Amino acid sequence: MTAQPPEHSPRPAEPGPLRASDDEREAAVERLRDAAAEGRIDFGELDARLERALTARTRGELAAVTADLPAPRAEAGGPPLVLKGGMTGASRGPGRWEVPGHVIAHGGVGGVALDFSRAECHHAEVVVEAYGETSGVTIVIPDGWTADTTGMDPGTGGLRDETTPARLPRTPLIRLTGSGGIGGVLIRHPNRRERRKLDANPA
Length: 203
Description:
Layout: H1 22-37, H2 43-55, H3 59-65, E1 81-84, E2 90-92, E3 102-106, E4 112-115, E5 125-131, E6 137-140, E7 146-153, E8 159-161, E9 173-179, E10 185-188, H4 192-200
Parallel strand pairs: 1-3, 2-4, 3-5, 4-6, 5-9, 6-10, 7-9, 8-10
Helix pairs in contact: 1-2
């Protein structure tokens, strides 16, 4: 009896290039705009690269658009700043403080106030995870800074975004994530009283 040749199982298909997500395309667009604001690329090249970034289908195509640009400082790592409202509340600012690339705020029972009005920020983008929990989180950012709240779950307490979309050159983007919980999350620019205090003491 003639031996039959062994059957060969079909080779699994090799995985294709990974597809880029909308968030990854948006992050690339922010890097390109920051690079133009810093003078690394001119505005004619910016338009061409923005078109490539917005139409990129894979991560490889997207990476090629920013391959010759420095990584955002927010990606440099380092421990996050963690604020816990606990029973008595917690705050950072409005005095001088250095902003890390990642901030986590838990409202707890006492609430959290996060004020960037006089903060020193060297990041193109800062991720703020805000969890309103019982008493909420309030975030104040200077005029000219902008916020992306599309990654935020409003929860039952809701999300109030009272910021304006006009971003000044060389200012950071606050990328807000987390959940409103019961107390909710508010992000805004300084109010009239806070502006008077800032104007009276500009240092």
